[in-house]
Specification:
This protein is mostly helical. It has three helices and no strands. Helix 2 runs antiparallel to helix 3.
Length: 67
């Protein structure tokens, strides 16, 4: 997921996507612990997607405070 795609989403959609991605990460970690994942790099990509979403939410919060 690109940052430009995240900017187009509403804050509510970002919050929902954040919850989904965190659940997905937990599931991937559990699966990786029990048995080897087909592509373990997906865990890293999911973590980075979560960080991008959190960054966009934080940017919007700061912009809202400055207005």
């Amino acid at each position: 997921m690109k940052a430009s795609e995240l900017k187009e989403l509403t804050t509510q959609e970002l919050n929902e996507k954040l919850v989904d991605e965190k659940a997905n990460l937990a599931k991937q970690r559990l699966t990786h612990t029990v048995s080897q994942l087909e592509n373990p790099m997906n865990i890293r990509h999911t973590r980075k997607d979560i960080a991008r979403i959190q960054t966009e939410l934080r940017r919007r919060k700061i912009e809202g405070e400055n207005k």
